[in-house]
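Example (one chain per record):
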Amino acid sequence: MAIEQEVLVIGGGLAGITAAVSAARAGADVRLVSYKQPTLRHASGLIDVLGYTPDGEGPLVDPFAALSDLPEGHPYERVGEDAVRSGLALFDDFADDTYEGNHTERNALVPTQGGRVKPTARYPASAAAGLASDERDALLVGFERLVEFDAPLSADRLNAAGAPFRARGATVEFPVELSADPKVTRFAHLLDRDEGGEESQDGSIRRALAQRVATHLDGETRVGFPAVLGDDHPEAVRADLESHLGVDVFEVPMGPPSLPGLRLEERLYDALDREGVRIETGNPVVGYEAGADGDWVAAVTVDRNGATVPYAAEQFVLATGGLVGKGIDSDRAGVEEPIFDCHVAHPPDRYDWFDDDAFGDHRFARFGVDPDRELRPRGARGAVEFDNLRAAGAVLGNYDFAAEKSGSGVSLATGTLAGRLAGETT
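Predicted structure:
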């Protein structure tokens, strides 16, 4: 017997979670199924909309001003500006006061771990004091055993890029003895507990760390740390460091595993719980059962410990990710969407999938399903493949989210619209 719900969302990343919440708010009974851990924990935690045009122009000051010029088939062209705004509004509701940027339509420039700046529409409040548009000088601080963040190198690159402030970098020993290669969560959990800082009179790690950093200050009024300032209590960690140092403190977003990404993931899954969405993880969706006419999906099949179990629904949302997340798969025979076998346009010659120039125009970066304006995947001749299936996020094609800096925005816009349409159709 099939497990039944009105809307089934496949995928637990930003697009899938957004779609599930949107469908639930439209009044539907929703279940979300995902196999792997969401990619949120591997991302910076920054929420972009559009940082660069498909032609590479940018960084863009106003992403909304560029939406009307995007090529036909781009996800933003398919869903329209209203969907982009609705997606951001839903995110603002998720994030509440833990993120900033909703006061303006302009992109903020946020320094990242490599000394680059990323144009982004929403950023963690913990990064707010570090914006590149701020002309105050900044001290960047790294830790001896945290090799992922080289503070002096990041500062040098910011200066070379023409940042409107002077950046300096310093590397200090963390005030607790650590293994040779500690995880970023180790730093965060020690700062959360705030115990064991033997250098400080009250045993506070936060105070001991501030004392070490203070010796490197040379008139700077803000200090940037790698984004490891707490997991459970990041606001308290940052507030204590600011109090001890007497300057503003900010986090510099880092790569995987990402504490800002983990914090965001927790807030998003809390939103699913509040909306009553049922969540199942760890079991892959491996196929589907077509309806009698073949133009609609009756159920998907889920592999549960070697046995396939049907999950029936009135509406389905596909949010399984792109090539990285295996929502789009490829081999020598071609490129495919592995669950529903939705059409994925691609050149037959594999050598046309990429450019010889490492920074050239790589076709594979735009592989994905091609939806109509209601986000229903279309076949090679443009006909909708399934009336009750919608797609959202990186599984969509016709855009290069890494080059455009548009991944989060597309996930929010398409997830919100796909979920709402699915929920309203039940």
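Caption: The chain has a mean pLDDT of 93.
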